[in-house]
Amino acid sequence: MLVELGLVEQRLKAVHEVLDGAPVIDVADRFGVTRQTVHVWLKNYSTGGMAGLVDKTSKPESCPHQMPAAMEARIVELRRAHERWGPQRILDQLALDGVEEVPGRSSVYRCLVRHKLIDPKARKRRKSDYKRWERSRPMELWQMDIVGGVMLADGWKASILSGIDDHSRFIVSAHVMRRATARPVCDGLAKAMRAYGVPEEVLTDNGKVFTSRFGPGNGDVLFDRILAQNGVKHRLTAPYSPTTTGKVERWHKTLRQEFLTGKTFADIEAAQAAVDVWVRTYNEDRPHQGIGGSVPWERFRLSQTDQPLLQIVEAAERSEVLDREPGQVPLTRLVSANGTIGFGAQRYLVARWLSGETVEVLSTEGLVEIVFRGQVIATHARKHDPGKAPKLTRSAPGRRARAATVGKPVTRLVDSRGGVSFAGTAYQAGHPYRGQTVQVAIVGGNVQLAIDGKVIKTHPIRHDLIKEHGAFANPGGRPPKKRTA
């Protein structure tokens, strides 16, 4: 008669045979297992008795890196309160709330999947599907547009003239208007330029307050005239192409979802005050995913060299970084197209958006710090041999990296188009200065235009450096041609 034994009973029988003196290898052959398995049974039986022969789950009893329950509950609460927030946005909010130990992005994603707040099978666009375009430095281009939906207590829906810097995503304009007509829009434009300076270009759609491109008249509208008087190039989108101004449109989406929805303001002044507070947080505190998690002000402040209007860390407060011994000249390097510099026979990453710019390099106490316009852009542990580093008493070689030109500035006349000719290259001064005399000087890697000692415009060097000798040889400009009968 055949008797079917359970798995635990078979293992117990094998253990008893070995304990009765049978060789382990013979017992293993009879039960169809290896001798190592028999030894494991013997060990488990000696420590746990018959219960030790039962199969155990492979799941660990504890997980040291498991997310705490309180953190998981907080993540779920944020997601349910803001259904459009993804893992990265939730992490940014946790950092803003002062959470010290923040989990990783993948941990947040798995937490949302566990609670069925994200569908893991949903189609995701790959990074290669996106085409991103942005200007290389601040103040090159502003994107401007009008957004509505500002509810007032009297039932009126006001509008906002919004403007965003293309490179830094810094909000330069959030001007609340009762009606989006020409005069309030131009008042908002003038307010932004007085606050942050004059950009090189402004990009808008084809609205009638921005351009007369599709209007009945032939003359320029007031918005166009203000830009022309300040030497700003006005760019227009193609008809029915809102993606061209995608950055400002994306900001409108954030503005509506996180600020305007569900809010009613007493009047225009109250709305403007509330918008200013929200925009200040957006510019100075909140990380922006479109620029790698940086704060917009961190990028935009590099353009505020003459009179910074926002509170920043002055160079005097960072003397431990920027102080140098007497007689030392800062080492300068030209940032390559891939955003790196060469120093001590090694490559150091700076930033791709600074390609073509001149930066200073400071090497102290095992660190290499890269400074641009008084601000530390990157810090790296030293990779080069200290013996191969250039001495700080001489300027480093480079195609354009050099100290400011010594000597008096040259004088030039602004032509009818608002331009100034220097070293065979035209630099824009602005239409308001047509016919006036300006002083042109080389300061670092920039061409500086000034009137009566006041800087009116600064441009990166675009001329051939060889032609500078001829430009400085004629400090008063080319003499006028004498007319002959």
Q: Care to describe what's here?
A:
With 485 residues, the chain is α+β, with helices and mostly antiparallel strands. The protein folds into 5 domains: 7-53; 69-122, Arc Repressor Mutant, subunit A (Orthogonal Bundle); 141-297, 2-Layer Sandwich (Nucleotidyltransferase, domain 5), CATH 3.30.420.10; 323-388, no CATH class; 410-473, no CATH class. It is built from 13 helices and 18 strands. It has helices at residues 7-19, 24-31, 35-48, 69-81, 87-96, 105-114, 182-196, 222-229, 246-260, 268-284, 296-300, 319-322, 468-473; strands spanning 141-152, 157-165, 171-177, 201-204, 233-236, 264-265, 331-334, 340-343, 346-349, 358-364, 367-372, 375-381, 410-413, 419-422, 425-428, 437-443, 446-451, 454-460. Strands 1, 2, 3, 4, 5 and 6 form a 6-stranded mixed β-sheet that branches. Strand 17 and strand 18 form a beta hairpin.
First and last CA, distance: 138 Å
Note the main sheet: 6 strands, mixed
Low-confidence region ranges: 306-329, 392-407
Number of strands: 18
What is the CATH topology descriptor of the largest domain? Nucleotidyltransferase, domain 5
Strand fraction equals 15-25%
The CATH class of the largest domain is: Alpha Beta
CATH-level-4 superfamily name of the largest domain: Ribonuclease H-like superfamily/Ribonuclease H
Structural class of the secondary elements?
Answer: alpha+beta
Shape summary: elongated
The overall number of domains is 5
Helix content: 25-40%
Count, helices: 13
